[in-house]
Amino acid sequence: MKNARQTAILSLIEQNDIETQEELAAKLKEMGIAVTQATVSRDIKELRLLKVLSGKGGYKYATADKAEHGLTDRFVRMFKESVLSINFANNIIVIKTLSGSANVAAEAIDSMRMPEILGTMAGDNTILVIVQNEAEAEKAVASFREMLK
User: Fold this and answer.
1) Cα(3)–Cα(23) distance, rounded to whole angstroms?
2) Which pLDDT value is given to residue 127?
3) Are residues 109 and 79 in the same domain?
4) CATH number for the domain harbouring residue 9
């Protein structure tokens, strides 16, 4: 019963912009699943659902991976708008950004979870990206430049 209910919840939030627990409970009842608000609340916690900004300007429930995807898209846009240059020497990549934008651009890089990147460090307008070797640096730089297109 619990698994079927939680599967239904995931399906509902995927197909609808559900803003409240009460709205979610009502949709479940429409499907013939009797629930209380307390049960819905527990399911939301167990499923680790988050409230994210919807396309309509309000908030809706989403799974963590969907919420993260939205953040990643935003970080990529910020990366594109703030990066001025990308160069590398050996295994170190240096990215110059607009003043005050390095942290946001570095967060975009970190959110990509590229396996070749060992770490990033951001200042005010410069990001250092450390990779394993020069070949990995070339690969990462190509990815960053592709993001700028």
Assistant:
1) 20
2) 97
3) yes
4) 1.10.10.10
**Owner of token pair 């963590």:** 64
Q: Tokens at residue 30, please?
A: 């429409």
Q: How many domains does the chain have?
A: 2
Q: Is there a single domain that holds both residue 91 and residue 137?
A: yes
Q: How far apart are CA 136 and CA 42, in angstroms?
A: 45
Q: Is residue 55 domain-shared with residue 122, that is, in the same domain?
A: no
Sign of dihedral through CA atoms 108, 114, 120, 126?
Answer: negative
pTM of the shown model? 0.56
H or E segment to which residue 14 belongs: helix 2-15
The residue behind tokens 């009797």 is 34
Q: What is the pLDDT of residues 118-130, one digit of tens each?
A: 999 999 999 999 9
Of 18-22, 43-47, 50-54, 127-131, the range with the highest mean pLDDT is 127-131
Domain with residue 142: its CATH number is 3.30.1360.40
